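To: structure subgroup
Subject: Chain for Friday's discussion

All,

I'm putting the inputs and outputs inline so they're searchable in the archive.
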Amino acid sequence: MDYKQDTIVAISTPPGIGGIAVIRVSGGNAIPCVEKIFNSSHKFSRYPSHKAIFGKIKSGKQVIDEVIVTKFIAPHSYTGEDVVEISCHGSVFIANKILELLLVDCRLAEKGEFTQRAFFNDKLGLTQAEAVGDLLQAKTKFSHLAALKQYEGRLRNRIENYLGKIIELRTQFELEIDFSEQGLEKLDRQKTENEISSLIAEIQELVDSGEEGLILRDGLKVSLVGAPNVGKSSIFNRLLQTSRAIVTPHPGTTRDYLEEAIALQGYFLKVFDTAGLRQTENQIEKIGIARSYQIITNSHKILFIIDGDENLDEYQKLTQIVDKERIIKVLNKSDIFSRKEIENFRKKGYVVCSATSKNGLQELKEKLLTDIQISEEFLQEGILTNLRQILAGKRAIKALQAALDSFKNKLGLEFTAFDLKSASEALEEIIGKITSEKILEQIFDNFCVGK
């Protein structure tokens, strides 16, 4: 991915009517470009950096809008270049008219190009650049906190710490290779084995955090599954706290799955109300059931809902496509059962609730989050938040394990040193010290224009 030197411009606020719109300009000619169309009490180029200035944007003699303009002189800006931000009234026409005037001397920015320039100018590491995108998409307290800590550099610092330990090990091996040529041995083999093993455990813990990171960013996928008319849609509506799904006493009301997103105790959940699982000759319902199984397979949690009949055949069928650990058995309509019957269901591992009376719904919500309880202290350390980072972390572990094996088996220090170098490269890929052009393109292409 080439770093282009020209001056770029884009509207950084979402399209639509609002209080203000912000147009961002970055590059060597950012200040002269804005100065051509901006009129204030003093010459714009003479104002100091980081000062907000009131004035008017003009097209010839015609006033387009009264605006506030802030300039940031390189390298003290988001991109590391000269940057100017124009805050105008939030009219689509006004913002586009100002953009049109600037495009005479500037180029329209590509997706994520401002953040890309910040990366190339060492204003942000790659994990921090990715965190910018995550901050823009953050939907809950914890997804925001995870993105914020990554943006602050917590993950980068954690990776740098691991890299420092690997460098120390590699230095020891290089010295040992030199000493071995002289017939001397200075390396404490047991201590070195312990250091490599400890490093593997630390990075494994980081990789394990990636599953929680993905859930925080993309959401915990929850499927509501069961026979027709057991109350899936009623529970779906209760979780959403709105009447999203149609509820009737007639089986087969939900012919296709419904999907909605909710925030639950600071976590982002994607909840799917699936078509009732049963044998049917209705072609539309058959398609809905087939789609339901696809959704179920990709879900983190499956609520298997019954209203008395345990439906063991469908439960067994479900366990053939997903792990039992992902299934939460739920008895709905508990208000029509006796205490003894309810106790029997509890002994069989069912969460007992009633969508009608709301009894047991809080217990069900807590059960959904059992495996992903994440403390704020855990997020403070920095966690992996996407598949690219997780895969690179796994490669680092694989290389370190190879280094440990070759060292234990005394295959030669050169082999161990090579594996340690491979581990370093994998970790460096996470923070962007070594990153292919294709990966960079994929990362910044996910950003919006203007960021």
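Points worth raising on Friday:
DSSP finds 16 helices and 13 strands in the chain.
The first helix runs from residue 30 to 35.

D.
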